[in-house]
Design goal:
single chain, 23 helices
């Protein structure tokens, strides 16, 4: 026995080391650690060709109004940036021949020369878009106006990023990637306590959810819920217009927005892996339904959450009633509706204690919620909204967005080596002569 005890002691350090290693692997990560991981993943999401060329277009516009040197590197590219800017701004989206193949090849070569500068440069060091458009399209008075500076500049460019994030999200050419980039350039904490701040927090939370950054989204929405709880009297006219709640008073609108924040925080938590997250998700869904019922919200969102909670509580008859309502939604495809029929049959024959139907899971739930949000976004006439708010140069802003979409798409096409080969060697040689 003494010999055996000595052997055990001799191996004790190794056993302790193995135990510590296993403990580290099995240790459940904290909310803070998971949030930091999402922040790292967000940076990786922003590393794409589409975002890089979009940012290139934004810097072309904003740097055109820059009067100071800023840096030696910027000064070395200033002439090239201004030359490309003049070509792109004059580009007529209705006349695709106005920028030639050679133009695109040369622009792409210029872009590659300054790519590192573009990627590491924060566009917000340059004048705002409003200042740039004033300089391009303004009258003699507005062209002489001082540029925004300090806190005023931070506020204006915050609003610009927020508006662009909302405008481009449904764009086939720019879409979610560019919307996410614009969203990350916003900073709600720099905005005064107002309706714009709460809508921005909600929209950021939705976009982070869409990209699978659930801990970032949860953090954003949690701060918004706290803000709404502390600002119950804030006026919400934009929210009523945005969600088409024209029949609601301000108190009910507040409840509606509060409910949707709980809804998406519930989805964030449902998509997480820890047991505590699912428990928190159910609490959020119950809070959502409580608020929704107070204002009479009765649509695919409420039916889908009712179904989920009824299934969890094994209230089969109520679950079937909500599933039957859900089948009437115009947001769902015929395939979705066929599978809801399968779900109804499953629930009818479901034995007590059996797991939830594999179809009616968290992914299907989040799909309905996302479709609901996109259906709302698609009905917003942003150009009309901006004109009603007297945003200067609204027509020019939307024309420039259209130009940027086409410019980025064509630049990618003409940058392809295979495309250049197909256009013929003589054209390539001609381009080389122009560059040399």
């Amino acid at each position: 026995m003494k010999t055996l005890f000595k052997i055990n002691l001799k191996h004790l350090p190794l056993l302790l080391s193995l135990f510590l290693i296993i403990s580290c692997f099995n240790k459940e990560k904290t909310d803070e650690e998971l949030l930091e991981k999402d922040k790292t993943d967000l940076k990786e999401n922003l590393d794409s060709y589409k975002i890089a060329t979009y940012k290139f277009g934004k810097i072309l516009i904003r740097s055109s109004a820059e009067k100071d040197t800023i840096s030696t590197e910027f000064q070395s590219f200033k002439k090239d940036l201004d030359r490309i800017f003049n070509k792109v701004v004059k580009y007529d989206v209705k006349n695709p021949e106005s920028l030639s193949l050679i133009d695109y090849i040369l622009i792409y070569r210029d872009y590659k020369k300054m790519e590192d500068f573009i990627m590491k440069t924060d566009e917000d060091i340059f004048p705002t878009l409003v200042d740039s458009f004033n300089l391009i399209y303004g009258d003699s008075t507005s062209k002489k106006r001082e540029y925004y500076k300090g806190e005023e500049k931070e506020y204006v460019q915050n609003i610009e990023h927020a508006i662009l994030s909302a405008i481009v999200i449904l764009s086939k050419d720019l879409g979610k990637e560019v919307s996410l980039y614009e969203c990350t350039k916003t900073n709600p904490e720099l905005l005064p306590d107002s309706e714009i701040k709460t809508l921005l927090l909600y929209f950021r939370g939705f976009l982070f959810f869409e990209k699978g950054l659930y801990y970032l989204s949860e953090d954003e929405i949690s701060r918004n819920i706290n803000w709404l709880n502390n600002n119950k009297e804030v006026d919400l006219p934009y929210t009523r217009a945005f969600f088409q709640w024209g029949n609601l008073d301000n108190k009910s609108t507040h409840l509606g927005l509060h409910s949707l924040n709980h809804l998406f925080r519930g989805f964030d938590r449902l998509m997480m892996e820890r047991e505590i997250d699912e428990k928190r998700a159910l609490e959020d869904f119950e809070a959502f339904l409580k608020d929704a019922n107070k204002i009479g919200l009765n649509n695919e969102i409420t039916w889908s959450i009712e179904t989920y909670l009824y299934l969890k509580n094994e209230e089969n008859e109520k679950a079937i009633t909500s599933l039957t309502k859900l089948k009437t939604s115009t947001l769902l495809s015929s395939e979705d509706k066929e599978r809801i029929d399968e779900s109804i049959e499953y629930v009818k024959n479901r034995e007590s204690g059996k797991v939830l139907n594999g179809f009616y899971d968290k992914f299907f739930l989040s799909k309905i919620a996302t479709k609901y949000m996109y259906s709302i976004l698609s009905k917003v006439d942003w150009e009309k909204v901006m004109k009603e708010q007297n945003v200067p140069h609204t027509n020019e802003i939307f024309k420039t967005i259209d130009n940027l979409k086409s410019f980025i798409d064509n630049l990618k096409e003409y940058a392809s080596t295979e495309d250049l080969k197909n256009k013929g060697k003589s054209l390539w040689n001609k381009t080389k002569e122009l560059v040399e």
